[in-house]
Amino acid sequence: MKHELIDIRMDDVLNLLRLNIVKQHGNELNAYCPKCDIHKIKGEGHLYINVYKNTFFCHKCGVGGNALQLYAWLSNMDTKEAYKELTQILTKGTKRARKAVAEPTVNYNITVKSDNLAPVEQRDKVYREFIKLLDLDEKHKEHLLLRGLTETFIKFKSYKSLNVRDERKRKEICKTLIEKGLSLEGVPGFFRHSDGSWDFINYDGFCIPAKDFEGRIQGLQVRIVKENSTSGKYRWFSSGNVPTGTSAKNFIHVTGSFNEEKCRRAFIIEGILKADICSYLMDGELFIGIPGIANSHDSAVEVVKNLGLKYEGEVYVVVDNDYYDKKEVQDAFEKLKKKFKEAGISILRLGFNLSYKGFDDYLLAKARGECA
Length: 372
What we know:
This protein has helices at about 10-15, 65-75, 80-90, 120-130, 140-145, 150-155, 165-180, 270-280, 295-305, 325-340, 360-365; strands spanning about 20-25, 30, 45-50, 55-60, 65, 160, 190, 200, 205-210, 215-225, 235, 255, 265-270, 285-290, 315-320, 350. By secondary structure, it is an alpha+beta fold. The strands form four sheets. It has a five-stranded antiparallel beta sheet with strand order 1-2-3-4-5. A five-stranded mixed beta sheet has the order 12-14-13-15-16, sandwiched between helices. Strands 6-9-10-11 form a four-stranded antiparallel beta sheet, with helices on one face. A hairpin with a 4-residue loop joins strand 3 (about 45-50) and strand 4 (about 55-60). Helix 1 (about 10-15) packs parallel to helix 2. The longest helix is centred in the C-terminal third of the chain and has 16 residues, at about 325-340. The protein is globular.
């Protein structure tokens, strides 16, 4: 019997783990980390959980991710095992739950943060000026060059480093933006200190602008470039974990050009940066990058509708070759396919050489003459 993919929400996981919650600021919880705060009895913990964003991060352990990854990490199992166990618990109503890590010290209520996200027109203006004030580190540029991009294309796409560790410099950048007549209120990544000064979140990585169908920058995704990082490669430039900040959403990214006369088709691929790379390696064909195969289905459908595509052979979905090993990926693809079918659009999954994990890896090898 086929099971539908279910969403693993942070509130589901919190109810099972029963963490030692120290305090709450809106949708953000501060807790004692069961890994590094074992003997701590007062003060703030190192573990921060954002219920609205469905994310966590331990600042001492350096581990972060989504609700499923939190459950897996604290339960000492991989995500596949964790997903299987959570599915059993959440869908079959089993009474079994993991042993509590600690009794909560305060009650927390799971509420949905009011959506204070600024209009896309405002975000677009802020991010465009913000990017101009940033530089691209050599290690980040080297990473992009190794993935098959040229210096010209890297500059054209406005990839910039976000590892601005000096708070004074970050505040100066924000001040410059405000002096240009821009409002940072409601723009993900920016937040205000208690003295009223504006700042932004520092990341050890570079940003990738995620643009909508009209070419406006909706948000910035961050590619973490850090050795021995266990908290995931990609995050959104977001300040939702700060009371005066704003959470990012799972934005899609439209890149390349749609030439109705030359080639009437579009590709949907998991990954914002991967969409840019694949479009570049395929002479600018149109790609729709989604944050993950299980995310942003409605937004992807809307873009395809705007393009006027609906027949077989016009819309292709590209997923990594771990599709064949991961049932959750297969289920997510079927869910996406169903969503498009309901909209009257036919999609096909595009297969490629199984020697390569990602479609971008395959295209790069092909461009270098390493495979057919």
